[in-house]
Amino acid sequence: MKQQSKFSGFILIGIGLFFFAMQMNIEIIQPYLTWPTLILIIGLALLMQAGSGKDASHLFSGVFLTGLGIHFHALGKIPSWPEPLQMITLLTGIAFLIQYKKGKDGLLPGLLLTGLSLWLIFFNQNTPSVENIFAEAKNFWPIILMVLGAYFIFFKKK
User: Fold this and answer.
1) DSSP letter string over 92-147?
2) 106 and 158, same structural domain?
């Protein structure tokens, strides 16, 4: 219960600072007082929650949301910033890898998603469009998802 109150405290302080900055009307920080900043605040609160105790269950969400907040801020300000699909898969892969470092779970998805993302970011011209790949395989997705779900339910035991 004490851990939950720390998380609530982190969230309340972060959102309070956000609204205080809005009220102060400081011109230099006004462009950053948007919804990506709120995502960033929630992600940082989750990271502080994961770092303040032995519970690493919030680490994945914290890394992902913090990265997502940074991504949406950078998307409009850096012209060569990668597309959302590439960054979301990269952030998910990085979150899995950090989770693996802490909890020894998520190495394979982390490596696969990070590798896929880096390929899409740096070698996009030579790669068929992800939309084309999904369009080709759209008839198989329900079966693949059901087989994976059954595997996790019936065969994957810890």
Assistant:
1) HHHHHHHHHHHHS--HHHHHHHHHHHHHHHHSGGGS--HHHHHHHTTTTHHHHHHH
2) no
Contacts 24+ apart (CB under 8 A), 135-141: none
Of the candidates 12, 105, 111, the residue with the CA atom closest to the CA atom of residue 57: 105
User: Residues with Cβ < 8 Å from 73, sequence gap 6 or more?
Assistant: 32, 36, 37, 40
The reply to whether 137 and 66 lie within a common domain is: no
Rounded distance between C-alpha atoms, residue 106 and residue 114, angstroms? 12
pTM exceeds cut of 0.85: no
| Euclidean distance between CA atoms 103 and 20, whole angstroms | 37
Shared-domain flag, residues 8 and 74: yes
- Residue 137 sits in the same domain as residue 74: no
pLDDT along the chain (158 residues), means of 10: 72 91 90 93 92 79 95 90 89 92 85 87 65 64 75 70
The two structure tokens encoding residue 72? 């949406």
Domain membership of residue 88 as a residue range: 2-125
What's the farthest any 2 CA atoms get from each other in the chain?
Answer: 57
